[in-house]
Design brief:
Radius of gyration: 21 Å
Order of helices and strands: HHHEEEHEEEEHEEEEEEHEEE
Structural class: mainly beta
Number of strands: 16
Helix content: 10-25%
Oligomer: single chain
Strand order of the largest sheet: 1-2-3-4-5-6-7-8-9-10-11-12-13-14-15-16
CATH class: Mainly Beta
CATH superfamily: Porin
Shape: globular
Number of domains: 1
Strand content: 35-45%
Number of helices: 6
Amino acid sequence: MTTTPYRSARRRRSALLAGCASALLLTHPDALMAQSSATDLAGPDAAGRLIASDTPSFAEDWQKSKALLAERTGLELAFDYNALGFAASASLGEDSAAGGVFRMIGKWSLLNRGGPDTGSLVFKLEHRHAYRDVAITDFGNELGYIGLVNSVYNDQGWRATNLYWQQNFAGGRATASLGWLDVTDYVDVYALASPWTGFSNLAFQTGSGTIAGLPDGALGLSAAGFVTDTIYVAAGIVDANADPTDIGAGIDSLFDEGETFKSVEMGWTSGPKAVFIDNAHLTFWQIDAREEAGSPESHGVAFSLTTAINDQWMPFLRGGWADGGGSLYEASVSAGFGYTKNPGQQLTGVGLNWSRPNSETFGDGLDEQVTAEVFSRWQPLDGVEITPSLQFIKNPALNPDENVLGIFGLRLRVVF
């Protein structure tokens, strides 16, 4: 068959974008190209993504044992340990915080293994622990900042972030998941959204801080698929009162209370393999009033625009709006870029955010905040990542005596 110049150019661009995606995520080059269908709509922290990318070459016998297990049984496993510390220039209380997280990630392919329409049991078990009296997720309160300087390093102990059945269908162009889900795996995803490997501050992650709830370990259903080669849709409904430390209670809370978080996302990408970094989407969400939590009904919309330039740069423009209480911000806009000169070895991110605190959550009369973050992630050894970062917060809304706060962070991730 004769290939037209247009098709050749399109293929070259697809190859370029796929390579840039792997560079920005600092994953194995084949991780994002393993499947060219709806599974690519899962975020960078989805279990399948982590398993595909976290394959260090050290401890060869251990890696061979995992590979043999996967070959014989279809059970793929990945493990990592993450540590993060922060020190602030000023504070209303504690001026430092630190914590760690151990994660065990698994995907057990039980139906049609090796085919496009695989059925798999997916799980992610974690132990989250604080090193100091204040957990990192509470550190913003110590600073008088309305926001999360990091959204995952808490002190919950053992938890099940994921435990669900994932079924691909339509020749791999669509997928559905049923069980205990993490909504950040499929809601408002982009390449730099991971609090483990990308930006730390929630302002540069899902919904730019405007989406209320964001439950994980939440019993529910999600589905995603490509309507055309460039247009996709993703949707989900989960328990709004999820407790990942007690997932069994999610059955009672979902069916007794019936309070849910719902989302629908519609997006465009130049191709499934570039869905992280050449993307434009709108995400609509709604969360029911939660009686026990005392939180009202809330709804809103988030948007995201990202693209790849010269196989090194990825600028982004993202934001959101919320109506009702429960979210950090009622309006927020973030802009910035990711940059890599040595794919697979180093990644720099720069972001700037403006936010208006949610008056229904925190009251009227609070200052608008401006947050900046710069990080640089390095891979000095295979399977080891070190990420120093700086955050600057102008006009922390609950600390009017401070005009600007500075926060130095240092993150370590070891994959094994």
